[in-house]
Design a protein that fits this description.
Structural class: alpha+beta
Helix content: 25-40%
Order of helices and strands: HHEEEHHEEEHEHEEEE
Shape: globular
Number of helices: 6
CATH superfamily of the largest domain: Mannose-Binding Protein A, subunit A
Number of strands: 11
Radius of gyration: 38 Å
CATH topology of the largest domain: Mannose-Binding Protein A, Chain A
CATH class of the largest domain: Alpha Beta
CATH architecture of the largest domain: Roll
Number of domains: 2
């Protein structure tokens, strides 16, 4: 009987030891695993005393730095702002005015075809092509060149305003304001606001190209015979009225943006050398003003 009792006690003890081992080891292993996970996810799980502690550590850790932050706002250069267009997102989609960044390659001759009676339609197309090269959004607009002929006045071609430059700055609120009338209601055209289609200022040094072809009077009318033969001529003896993009310089009215002085020369200037008899003679490059009516 004693042997049976002792044997029974031994078996019971062994079973109890096995049960104890089964109930504690998995929990410790889970806690260790959880602690390790918590250590990688956050400091709170480093104790790893139980599985729940490890889980807490994982949820308490910082966000994965490899995940992109989509809450960051995009700027105009990223195309995030529909109000800005162009290759570098630096031109206002609201632009309705600019100075051309170059001449058309034919001096004072803006005809689209040799048989055109004047160069107005060709000059309009030139404005549109430069705007479209910046963005189709701008190219889709109707563009008019600010040019007078003997029969057509520049003032009548450009609509009522207001007009905005490449940076979205209003340069004039109306036709009257554009032409500096009434007295004291000066427009906002200046060296810093008279920008080309890319948003750049017109150079006034190395080289100075502030002369802009207009054929116009200060009030936007016509100066008869001072328009490179109605913008059909590239002759050295042709004449044209020009304005000063920076509203400064020499001439009869040096502060005028559209009628500073006349030049003698309608030929396309050479790449380098003497500019005599060309549209560059007074400090220009054959640029014109462009407006959306």
């Amino acid at each position: 009987m004693k042997r049976r009792t002792i044997s029974l006690l031994l078996v019971t003890g062994m079973l109890a030891a096995v049960a104890c081992s089964d109930s504690t080891e998995p929990g410790a292993s889970s806690g260790s695993s959880g602690g390790s996970s918590g250590s990688s996810g956050g400091s709170s799980g480093s104790s790893g005393s139980s599985g729940s502690s490890g889980t807490s550590g994982t949820s308490g850790g910082p966000a994965d730095s490899s995940v992109a932050d989509t809450s960051t706002a995009t700027d105009a250069g990223d195309g995030g702002d529909a109000g800005w267009v162009g290759p570098d997102g630096g031109v206002a989609a609201s632009m309705t005015y600019f100075v051309t960044s170059k001449g058309n390659g034919k001096g004072g001759d803006f005809r689209a075809a040799a048989g055109d009676a004047d160069g107005l339609a060709g000059a309009d197309a030139f404005c549109k092509s430069l705007a479209n090269a910046v963005s189709p959004v701008l190219g889709a607009k109707t563009w008019k060149a600010y040019l007078s002929t003997d029969a057509v006045i520049a003032r009548s071609r450009i609509g009522a305003g207001p007009w905005f430059n490449a940076k979205g700055v209003m340069i004039a609120s109306s036709v009257a304001n554009l032409h500096d009338e009434p007295a004291g209601a000066k427009n906002a055209l200046s060296e810093t606001t008279n920008l080309d289609e890319l948003g750049n200022k017109v150079p006034i040094a190395n080289p100075n190209v502030h002369d802009i072809l207009t054929g116009a009077s200060e009030k936007g009318g016509s100066v008869m015979g001072s328009n490179c033969t109605n913008w059909t001529s590239s002759a050295t003896g042709g004449t044209a009225m020009v304005g000063h993009a920076n509203r400064n310089g020499g001439g009869t009215t040096p502060t005028s943006w559209n009628a500073a002085h006349s030049i003698t020369g309608c030929k396309e200037p050479p790449a380098a050398g003497n500019a005599g008899g060309t549209v560059a003679v007074g400090g220009g490059r054959g640029s014109i003003y462009c407006f959306v009516p």
